[in-house]
Amino acid sequence: MIATTEARAPGAPARAPAGGAPPSVRRVRLTSIALVLGIAALPMLMPAGLPPGPGNTGLPDLALIGVTGATVLWATARRLPIRWPFLIPTLMTITAGGIAAIVNDAGALTLVKDLFVLLWAVCIANLSRDPGHLRVALRAFVAIGTLYAAVMIIGFVLGVEALSGKQVDGERAMFTFGDANYASNWFICVFFIARAAGYPATPWRRWTACGVLLAAELLTGSNGGLLALLVAVLLGGLFRLCREGRAHHAVALGALVALLASGTAAALTQIDVQPLLNRAAESSPLLRDSVGRSTGESASSRSTVLSSTVEMTKEQTHPWGIGPGQTEAQMLERQDAFPHEAHNDYVAAVLERGFLGGIALIMLLSVLLLMCVRIARRGALTEEYARLVPRPELFGALVIVFLISGLFYETLHYRHAWAFFGLIAALHLFGRGGDPPGPPRDAGCVFPGGRPPGTPVSDAGDPHDAVAASSPVAVSAASLRSPASSGRATSGAGAPPAARPVPPVKVRTAAGGGADGLRRRLVGLVAGNMVGRIGALGSLGVATIIVARIGGPQLVGAFTLARILPGLLSQLSNAGLSAAAPYFLARDDHDQRTVRPTLAWLTVIGAVVSGLAWLALSPVIYLVFFSSFGVWVAVAAAVPAVTQGFVSVGKGLLQGTDDQHGASLAIAVEEFVFLPLYLALLVAWHGPGALIAGLVLADVAAAAWIARRLARRGFFTGWGRADRRLGRTIAGYGLRGYLGQLIDLLQLRFDMALLGALAGPKVLGVYTVASKFAELVQLPGLAVNYVLYPDFAKNDRATATRRTSRLILPALGVSVLTALPLALIAGTALPWVFGDVFDDAVVPTYIRLAGVVTFGVTGLIMAYLYGVGRPGAASTGQGIGLLVVIALGAVLIPAHGATGAAIATSVSFVATTAALLVWFQHVKRRR
């Protein structure tokens, strides 16, 4: 008996009784039997058509009691602590449900079920501390699941409803689940476990089992399950590419698939597919109950339930929810047309458990996804666990199945879902062996230029290559190689690199040694840049409010024109110097004694040319833009055309001298300093004149602050003579990059221009709100681009390529994580802030968010292309995105208005990312 088995001290040999196995062996066998029986009971919710017990209890809950007891006895006998994965999210869920139940005096029984499903994950995770138990669990899932699928198929073919569980009023098979969607999710789950575990080991047997499982899934007729399966199979392939170190291939392929899917969806909007669906439904009863439901009664009922639950959420007078499991009861009280439980995990969490339930759900999903990422890394699992689960990335794909299915059903309450979550937790808690093996890591300081001041370039090794190779997010500012291995030509104007003194700039030490210190440095720099950008946006917003209060919309228009137009002309006049400066300052194949004065002269020349060009164009500028303000305002705006050039180039100089904190701070200073200066001018002066004067004084103050910071870092010491030939090289590089900036601006604003021309200002206003809200997702990508561009310029191409490859997935993940909370609050935040008239902005916002999540990868690849001296390639990729938005916008905007504009722009973002990844692959393969 398990309960009477004697425990032995760790390390002591087991005493084998006469005629039997040792107690430990018997205990393991009995524990394995309990585990197998528990897994076998998971589908037995309605065996032989019997109704479930009180509170939808059933045979799996009785089996869980046995599995829990066996787990506790097994762990106690070995003196092992019980680990509780997902405890905090589950406790938050129970707490939220308890508060809602107390407030509404209903739904307390559901809280017990929350704890019961958690026990499945706890038991399987703790038992799988022993790899033998994990092997038993994996094989039990696959063998039992395949057997059940075969039984259901046989029953369906023979017409034995006791075996197939076929619906009374239809052809969908449910097996013993009592719900076809539940059965579909079970068979998909077993399919992915079989693929991840590589069981059965013989390929033909494994594919036969997978075929049986897929056939059973199709017989359930679940459209949502089939959609989730297709998406997860695609993602499983993409995750495998990522795990094999081909992340750029995965992102490019994913972008291509998204592009094709978007194009297909756009084409279907112009084609009436309903007759085809009706014809397919009439050809087979099974198709009638699956495909035929996609546009029929099922789709209508789900849409009705969704709209009712969303409306119920908006009607709540308190933030605690209506109570767990109370959706259907509340719908009956409201006398809704289709009272039903919420068919959506996400809506149900917020509606029934309030905002705490929503936070708990986000936390649970975040923990799950983080575990999947950690176990899927190449070399993350120990050899013993890696043999049991050779493709752990497919567990991540299966989690995506649950996330997608959660849009149509409440899958996060399925018992087998939590049993599967226990497998993930087991690999995460006990199967990981630490960081993957790699070259020894070098701890030390990160010096600007990659070496301590005074060290010749020829003696500077590559101290952080090991870190970059072994860490997916480690970014070093020091990874340089010697000129002998660089393959780059030396500027004719400078001395050989080995003999060139290093500019006397300050040394900054990484926060800690090795990969952890470098990772913290990257995170700190990106976070600092985002803070600077957010501060700039905040300052600009306050300034706009002040200007609007003083002069109304007309003065706001003058403020916008006086900020944007001089800046555009300044960038063009100095040949995109702000983007070129970091590259040439960070490189080691030009003499910095020549580069720095050349950049300074180019800045002065560009500012003068910008001012003169503005004066020459002032008649045209006055007629087109400033006719309501007077000629003198148009002429006076020539001054900010001069001063803005010094500020923009100054930020690039801070980037190139490895003063990333200063460059990020300059972004905020540039906008913030305008506020006190403008307020001081308002004491005695109003109107556009004070506005322009404030802009000029702010530029002068910001430029002086930047110059002072550069001087402290020794930028103005040790100068030689400016070089005309080098100046032409810098100007050519900058112009190629500036072309991409113009294209990017056109890509972002073409949809607005066309929408305004075709749909009018009201629709444009709604879409502008959606566009600006969604563009907040770009902040991390912009910060990554700003921080990594000079780092990549310091690296040799091989190091920059390797680090870019490793950062593609983290960059994409950061953008996705930024988009998720924005998507969650968009439905309530936009109408609440701007008014109910902006309800129509919600759908375009969701569409824009779906496309802009790729911008993290876009910013990273553009930083790489700039860093390796290929700004023209970056501009070409952006040009492809512009062509896509023009083509799709011309087709979709006339027919679909703001929604069409959002689709066109989102697809163009994906196309840009795909094109840049193709360029990355091309540059990577070149020597």
UniProtKB/TrEMBL annotation:
Keywords recorded for this protein, A-Z: Cell membrane, Membrane, Transmembrane, Transmembrane helix
Skewed-composition ranges (Low complexity): 7-23, 298-308, 483-497
Entry membrane topology: Multi-pass membrane protein
Domain O-antigen ligase-related: 212-362
Location (main, coarse): membrane
Keyword Transmembrane helix: yes
Spans through the membrane: 28-46, 58-77, 84-103, 109-128, 140-160, 180-197, 250-271, 355-376, 388-409, 530-552, 564-586, 598-617, 623-642, 663-684, 690-707, 807-834, 846-867, 879-895, 901-920
One of the Pfam families matching this protein, by short name: Wzy_C
Region feature (Disordered): 1-24, 288-308, 440-466, 483-511
Subcellular location: Cell membrane
InterPro entries in the cross-refs: O-antigen_ligase-rel_domated (IPR007016), Poly_Biosynth_Transport (IPR050833), Polysacc_synth (IPR002797)
Name under which the protein is recorded: O-antigen ligase-related domain-containing protein
Species of origin: Actinomadura meridiana
Lineage: Bacteria, Bacillati, Actinomycetota, Actinomycetes, Streptosporangiales
